[in-house]
Backbone:
């Protein structure tokens, strides 16, 4: 009788779970609900105060449209750069990934700079009926953009440390998801607050 040792069977490699991507999706839904609730309150209050909303004594709107359009354009360009980073990490093009993430961060900082310039230019006062809601919405968008920037910077440092590659691109994909949600939320704010005034 011969004893044969069975060949050692290696367990199958299970696909990587995507906790970071799911967590980011839940966070994106939460900030979307927050900002869309503020926009709904803004539109409801604006409808109740029709004729006196964001107007000076001469009846002109106090917020120009040029600056918000530039902000939207900046975020659209940054979303293109963020998608480039996702494309590059999926192909192990690390140099392109870092370049795209760097440009995204610079465009995000430009958006924040444009926001502070717009607040100074608009000069909406808190004593006006639209003042608190205007600053709540634009300040909420500002805070969401800061959070998205922090997320992109954190994922860039993790990619620099070698934690992300074509086999595990989840971090860059999660940062891109949150960045795209940030763009979608700003487009709603852009239309509801700046275009329809």
Residues:
């Amino acid at each position: 009788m011969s004893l044969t040792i069975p060949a050692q069977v290696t367990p199958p490699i299970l696909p990587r779970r995507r906790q970071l991507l799911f967590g980011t999706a839940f966070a994106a839904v939460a900030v979307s609900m927050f900002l869309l609730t503020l926009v709904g309150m803004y539109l409801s209050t604006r409808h109740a105060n029709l004729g006196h909303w964001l107007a000076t004594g001469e009846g002109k709107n106090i917020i120009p449209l040029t600056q918000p359009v530039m902000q939207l354009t900046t975020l659209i360009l940054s979303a293109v750069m963020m998608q480039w980073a996702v494309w590059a990490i999926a192909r192990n093009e690390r140099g392109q990934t870092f370049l795209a993430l760097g440009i995204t961060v610079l465009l995000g900082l430009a958006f924040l700079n444009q926001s502070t310039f717009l607040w100074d230019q608009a000069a909406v006062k808190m004593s006006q009926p639209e003042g608190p809601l205007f600053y709540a919405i634009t300040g909420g968008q500002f805070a969401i953009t800061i959070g998205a920037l922090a997320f992109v910077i954190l994922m860039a440092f993790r990619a620099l440390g070698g934690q992300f590659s074509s086999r595990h691109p989840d971090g860059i994909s999660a940062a891109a998801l949150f960045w795209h949600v940030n763009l979608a939320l700003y487009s709603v704010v852009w239309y509801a607050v700046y275009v329809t005034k």
